[in-house]
Amino acid sequence: MKHPIATFCVLAAIFAACTLSPVAAQAGDLLVKPRNPKTIYRAQDGVYEPRKLKYRVSTTAGKRTWVLRSRKTMFTGTPPSGKARKRAKRVVVTPNDARIGALAPGIYDLRLVWRAKGRGNKRVKRNVSLVVEGDAAAGLSYFTNSCSGCHDIGVNKNGPRLGGVYGRKAGTVPGFSYSDALVAYGEVWEERTLNAWLKNPQKLVPGANMYVLVTDPVDRMNLIAYLKSVSP
Ligand code: HEC
Asked: Any signal peptide, and if so, which residues (predicted)?
């Protein structure tokens, strides 16, 4: 057995005690909690939701200097550097307004990377989705031109009514006869799912009954902002 950890796991498994998570911490690792990916929204008026991301950073051994690096510097960590010890330290990550404000509406998947200086240069990554919301008024005019032939906010037409669609499970408007494919899809409509649906409904849900493609990402984000504005 070449790897000491693997040897340990094999031995421990014999005693049914190898309950370590797949990425078991090693001495000196930098730990960042929570693990779950987060989403931060930026509305047209520059308001962020949530305004800040909070993480807890710690090292399993000793005193280490950690540094937050984030791709394209969309976020800054406060403080930008400091000592993380055994006891977890709270890190607040703040959006960089100038950089994010210059982005076109869209969904951006970013990575926050922490680096512990010193032996081994350990890195820890956390995924953050940045949703730069579109303009609901522009979305309404796109809707009127391209969607209202089949969709209404209040009533079912050729397509299901779209009032309240944001946050609703796909294929669940009473009295509308959906394709089996869309009912089986069963996801909740939010930024990511609506964006994929509007980009290409057939690709997201093969066999669905809608064939309209909204090719421009900004148009899609505007439409999503509009649909969100007519949803509770
Ligand atoms: C030619 C008619 C037609 C047009 C135009 C059309 N749709 Fe649809 N849409 C449908 C049909 C039909 C369905 C139901 C699909 C199914 O059952 O597979 C649907 C479903 C949807 C759904 C899912 C609703 C739910 O309750 O799960 C959304 C969201 C949606 N359309 C948005 C739009 C938007 C936004 C536009 C304009 C860019 C648009 N549609 C244009 C016919 C249309």
From this structure: 1-27
Inter-residue long-range contacts of 194-202, CB under 8 Å, 24+ positions, other chains counted: 194/165, 194/166, 194/220, 194/223, 194/224, 194/227, 195/107, 195/220, 195/221, 195/224, 198/223, 198/224
Q: List pLDDT tens digits, range 76-88.
A: 876 555 566 556 7
Q: Between 157 and 72, whose confidence is greater?
A: 157
| Residue 170 in contact with ligand 1 by CB distance below 6 A | yes
Q: Percentage of the chain with pLDDT > 90?
A: 57
* Residue owning the nearest CA to atom 36 of ligand 1: 147
Identify which has the larger pLDDT, 24 or 180: 180
Could you tell me how many residues make up the chain?
232
> Which stretches of 73-226 are assigned E, i.e. beta strand?
75-78, 81-84, 89-95, 106-116, 123-132
How many angstroms separate the CA atoms of 42 and 188, rounded? 21
Give the other-Cβ count within 10 Å of 90's Cβ: 9
Q: By alpha-carbon position, which residue is closest to atom 40 of ligand 1?
A: 147
Claim: this prediction has a pTM higher than 0.85: no
Chain centroid, CA 220 distance in Å? 17
For the chain, which domains are there?
25-132 (2.60.40.10), 136-229 (1.10.760.10)
Q: How many angstroms is it from 212 CA to the middle of ligand 1?
A: 8
